Please model this.
Amino acid sequence: MGQNHNGNLSSPEYIKTSLASAVALRFKSGRFYRDAKPFCINLLLNYTDSCYANCAYCGLARSRPQNNGDKSFIRVDWPVLKTTDVIERIERYQSNIRRVCISMVTHKNAVEDTYSITKKMACYRSLPISILITPNLMNKEDLIRLRQIGADTIGIGMDAASRRVFESTRGKKVNGGLEWKKYWDILQDAVDVFGRDKISCHIMVGIGETDYELCKIFFKLRKYGALIHLFSFYPEPDSSMSTRKRPSLKRFRRIQLIRYLIENDIIKEKHLSCNEKGKISKLSIYNDIINNVVESGRPFITGGCEGKNGDMGCNRPFGSYRPGESFRDFPFHPETEDIVRIKKESRLEEI
Ligand code: SF4
Model:
């Protein structure tokens, strides 16, 4: 009947779905602001003793108050559902779905449970599957096995832009137990196993890093062959960073633009200058190039793993912002009026 031996709704028999995915699969009712439907079904392993790590900004952190089973994540509830029911709905609604993403948490059963769920998903349908891994639990053989059973993309939630920020938000300073070096080792292994541009690295803006640190890690990830998916920090209630301010929209827009320029080899390190506080102070390329890139809207689209035919796959609507406010990243191609607004928000002429 699916419940585990102690009656808890744990993986692999049960799994959490993002609220947007639960709506897309008709487990919940709801409508999306500006019709920003999710193209990817985001799933998260579920354990009553939750995640052993202690990231300062995360709703699932070990030291965050509340019963673990009730912890929210990215400020919304993640309904817990029977894995077989989720798979059945994915099959039923697959014409609207472009990708499935299974996110691990730091738990002793997470690797084996991820295999068993991925295997079931891969047997029943033909959608591409991403696995958002926890590097400290994995080795290269695990990655090879994941590829063999049907995953085509690996996500790595590095989140911090530098070792300094990593230590203060996820590592020793918060008794988190995660290791910066291990993240880079597994990233290299993942590129070896899955190939260049098949690894997505999540980086968060606004958790204490400088622009200089962001630019540095963007160039480094480009060199490794990983894609960069940006997130804008949004404080999680009751987490250690619950009172920290979000990055300004102006800063986030500029970082989105710089990420795009670096990932598409439009600029090199010599084109960027930062001041003594680590803030970007000069971008030495022609204004026409910047204007064309901004006009295209592409830097501001949600960074996510691609869909079945190379189209936009994971678009995570409202991951970093609330419906009604400016889209921090766009889960669809920005429209003309969006571009006008983006230009005002970023005030690029001030760089
Ligand atoms: S971009 Fe989306 S699909 Fe890809 S790893 Fe991140 S959350 Fe998963």
User: Anything to note?
Assistant: Residues 158 and 308 are 25 Å apart (CA to CA). The chain has ten helices and ten strands. Confidence is low (pLDDT under 50) at residues 1-6.
